[in-house]
Amino acid sequence: MNGFNFFSPTEFVFGKGRENECGEFVKKYGGSKVLIHYGGQSAVKSGLLDRVKASLDKSGIYWCELGGVKPNPRDTLVYQGIELCRSEKVDLILAVGGGSVIDSAKAIAMGVPYEGDFWDFYSGKRPEKALPVATVLTIAAAGSEGSGDSVITKEDGMLKRGAGGDCLRPRFSIMDPELTQTLPAYQTACGATDIMAHVFERYFTNTPEVEITDRLCEAVLLTMVKETPRVIADPNNYEARANIMWAGTVAHTNIVGVGRDQDWNSHGIEHELSALYDCAHGAGLAVIMPAWMEFVYKHNIMRFCQMATRVFGCNMDFENPENTALAGIRAFRTFLRGIGMPINFAELGAKEEDIPVLVEKFGLGYGLTWGFVRLSSADIAEIYRIAARAEI
Amino acid sequence: MNGFNFFSPTEFVFGKGRENECGEFVKKYGGSKVLIHYGGQSAVKSGLLDRVKASLDKSGIYWCELGGVKPNPRDTLVYQGIELCRSEKVDLILAVGGGSVIDSAKAIAMGVPYEGDFWDFYSGKRPEKALPVATVLTIAAAGSEGSGDSVITKEDGMLKRGAGGDCLRPRFSIMDPELTQTLPAYQTACGATDIMAHVFERYFTNTPEVEITDRLCEAVLLTMVKETPRVIADPNNYEARANIMWAGTVAHTNIVGVGRDQDWNSHGIEHELSALYDCAHGAGLAVIMPAWMEFVYKHNIMRFCQMATRVFGCNMDFENPENTALAGIRAFRTFLRGIGMPINFAELGAKEEDIPVLVEKFGLGYGLTWGFVRLSSADIAEIYRIAARAEI
Fold it and tell me: Are residues A162 and A195 in the same domain?
């Protein structure tokens, strides 16, 4: 096991109706002037935004608001948010929404105390300070409610890039599984795919002897395999929603990934898809991740056998382990199809002829990525090709 | 799943030689005058205490020290520590040791700012503030390095009682698995038993539909089943030590136990043994926990089948599930015997004729405990009897 630091100071406030406590929690964490940041009309129509405002009012918290965050959140709105926070002297940003809203809030939070362009933090600069961020989560997916990460898309050129630092970890995150019950099945499945992908990016490692984090990763995956089809079949299944919601957080605080090298190439490869086609990140991952697995599995067949047997319940073929490795990947893709995810370019709305553009935008040139298997531009092109043509 | 708040703000600093960074971390968390709290001579002889002091000196931190913490730490030393912290104006307590040292440090930390008797917090009063505590962990066992709990024994009457509150969670915990390599096999096995017991206390629940925390609990248990025999066979196996150390923390921050009713009766029943005989807590748990399982398993045979099949790899007897439930309990006791733990009163140094005294000290009277199965004094006596006579 590698050495590591693990720091996850977010207070998670979980359960039915807990959003009505957000005023008290803002107060507890020292907020007095809050920016409520949110996305489209669903938070308005559902009455959630009104409940949040009522709770802030009750606690005597001043608030202003900025809606309009889109999936694959844009830099343009971040600049607006920074201006607004400065002029209103905001001291805490409350993100009411999913990963896109939270990531946008984190970007604003870094930008407010920073004299330069906030995009610097998405170009490699490490953030040292940020306004406090808190969240009221409405979709189990990105894990941004417990992570120190943020992904933003620069509209000029549709560049999708990430930033990270412990100062971005939310002070508190309110997680009411009931808020996710109104999500359409497709979005629910996209979220579930994202959660599983966060685990797989950590699971495929070259660090030996990491039984505890292997088992913790598998715990999250087994939960998703059991619970996701249940919420797709019955969106109002509170218990399944609750299990998925906590799984999504555990998947991405990094408690299941400490002490081991991680991969993250599938995320990078997917980001070019969602940047170019503006498709859902989870849907892109459903297309890319099994293709990536098919491309790399020979690097460590036994690790793929472990996934196949422990997560998908495949029988181990001791005479020919490769069969088991491939059966596991097939089981994953079949699972994704079963929850309504696309599994190839056509189903996603992507085009095979765009592969050169995707590889170009990935921007690797003649270099190699880091990860479980270090990839060249040619390797990435091949992964896109496998993804383009995948069938079950 | 029940609603919950989860808050684990401790920074975990994990890996070889990380104790040499403790001065920097004390500084980061605002300490300038530190009490180094420790146990017996092992921390002195190993040179660990000198390394800790050198690191504090290097960071310009003033320190004083108080050693002498015993297993089943006593109130008498806590009073001394409170006096010392007050007279030296200590602003952070650094526990260098295992669960006993950390628990003693937490008791002192609560006592310093409190005008009354610190024992109030071990008699039901909730602590609101405490001096910051930090740890350099030397044994994987109690999980106190990440928890908000503390257990202290009152010498007058040998009463062993617990206190808890988020203000007791350590600011940082330095975890170097190498420091645990010098532990005798018996202490290592006691620690492993304690870790597994922390999970089982959470695992046996009446809350339905808690797949994510079930699976996380099983992840820790599976790791312990794999790694513990490896360190017993080879105390210098760093990788196995590292896996156990992180498992021990994950077992007790409560991330695997949120949203579900928990039991904790085995801990209570064991506390009377270690209070009366001053035996190791882990050894007492090895005797009590399988006995408790035998007494309660009929309350939910399927949950015991789940443990048997998922954790101990038993085959499910679909015709007679009770066989599988019992096979799982037997597998647990066999595992404990295999790592050198006692499994009955004689091996522990306890006496069956003391059972009335143990039940009396438990102090339940005509009431019932809370938990998976609510127990009467007669039930507890019966569990002690099963434990007294257990064989494999």
Answer: no
Chosen domain end from A179, A204, A227: A179
Cβ pair A223:B215 closer than 8 A = yes
Q: Are residues A201 and A293 in the same domain?
A: yes
Q: Is A220 on the interface with B (CB under 8 A)?
A: yes
Q: Is residue A151 located within the same domain as residue A300?
A: no
**B209 and B295 share one domain:** yes
* HSE toward the beta carbon, residue B174, CA cutoff 13 A: 25
CB-based contact A215 B212, cutoff 8 Å: no
Q: Please give chain B's pLDDT, 392 residues, in tens.
A: 999 999 999 999 999 999 999 999 999 999 999 999 999 888 888 999 999 999 999 999 999 999 999 999 999 999 999 999 999 999 999 999 999 999 999 999 999 999 999 999 999 999 999 999 999 999 999 999 999 999 999 999 888 899 999 999 999 999 999 999 999 999 999 999 999 999 999 999 999 999 999 999 999 999 999 999 999 999 999 999 999 999 999 999 999 999 999 999 999 999 999 999 999 999 999 999 999 999 999 999 999 999 999 999 999 999 999 999 999 999 999 999 999 999 999 999 999 999 999 999 999 999 999 999 999 999 999 999 999 999 99
Q: Judge if A273 and A330 occupy the same domain.
A: yes
In angstroms, the separation between the Cα of residue A263 and the nearest Cα of chain B is 21
- DSSP code for A119: G
**B155 and B59 in a common domain:** yes
**How are beta strands B62-66 and B92-97 bridged, if at all?**
unpaired
Could you tell me if residue B3 is inside a domain?
Answer: no
Q: Within a domain: residue B65? A: yes
Q: Are residues A289 and A376 in the same domain?
A: yes
Q: How far apart are CA B44 and CA A8, in angstroms?
A: 32
Query: What is this structure's pTM?
Result: 0.97
B127 occurs within a structural domain: yes
b/e B298-326 (16+ beta carbons within 10 angstroms → b): eebbebbbbbbbbbbebeebeeeeebbbb
User: What's the ipTM?
Assistant: 0.97
3-state helix, strand, coil in chain A (%, to 5): 55, 15, 35
Q: Which of B13, B209, B242 has the CB atom closest to A243's CB atom?
A: B209
Is A7–B12 a contact, with Cβ atoms under 8 angstroms apart? Answer: yes
Nearest-angstrom CA–CA distance, B301 and A33: 53
State the smallest CA–CA distance between residue B236 and chain A in angstroms. Answer: 14
Helix axes A211-233, B211-233, angle to 10 degrees: 160
- Closest partner residue to B11 (CB to CB) among A5, A213, A222 is A5
- Separation in Å, CA of B228 to nearest CA in chain A: 12
Q: Rounded to 5 degrees, what are φ and ψ at A152? A: -130, 150
CATH of the domain at A340: 1.20.1090.10
Q: Is residue B196 part of a domain?
A: yes
**The total number of structural domains that make up chain A:** 2
**Six-digit token pair at B358?**
């143990």
Phi/psi of residue B135, nearest 5 degrees: -135, 150
Per DSSP, helices labelled H in chain B are 22-28, 42-45, 48-58, 75-88, 99-111, 185-203, 211-233, 238-250, 265-277, 281-296, 301-310, 321-338, 345-348, 355-362, 377-389
Domain final residue pick, A164, A179, A194: A179
Domain with residue A166: its CATH number is 3.40.50.1970
DSSP per-residue codes, A54-84: HHHHHTT-EEEEE--PPSS-BHHHHHHHHHH
Are B26 and B94 contained in the same domain? yes
Q: How many residues does chain A have?
A: 392
Q: Which range marks the domain in which residue B35 is found?
A: 11-179
- Give the Cα separation of B205 and B221 in Å (integer): 16
Q: Are strands B33-38 and B62-66 parallel, antiparallel or unpaired?
A: parallel
Out of A218, A239, A259, whose CB is closest to B209? A239
In this complex, how many residue pairs, one in chain A and one in chain B, have their CB atoms less than 8 Å apart? 129
